[in-house]
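Task card 7
Instruction: Convert sequence to structure tokens.
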Amino acid sequence: MSDSKNDTHPVVTKMLLGDKMTDWLKADVLESRPGFCRLSMIAREEMANGFGIIHGAITFALADSAIAFAANAHGRHAVSLTTSIRHLAAVHPGDHITAEATVTTLNHRIANVDATITNQDGVCVADVRATGYRKKEAW
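Output:
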């Protein structure tokens, strides 16, 4: 994982220290701030399913990381309650995909976050909606 723009929010930096999944994805944090995160990665051959396309869990995982970083950068631990994904186009090995997550509503206990995943051609390959629970613990 690299921090090419050097504008990773301190909470996201702390979260990344123990985040084995985002590390395995080799996702780059392009931008993170309270309420927003953009991550990108290259889809690898070992991520393909039996159809030779990238497994839906990969796009889900990239979006899930972006969602978590966007919600947690507000300073309190936030965990997922529900998350749903719509797969809109196939992702292939070698594709460069980017997830952008935006907190749409935030209150004392609940955060709603929307995310899109696009490929290198700007095609939206999936969109995600998540609801998270904000715990009392601060980062």
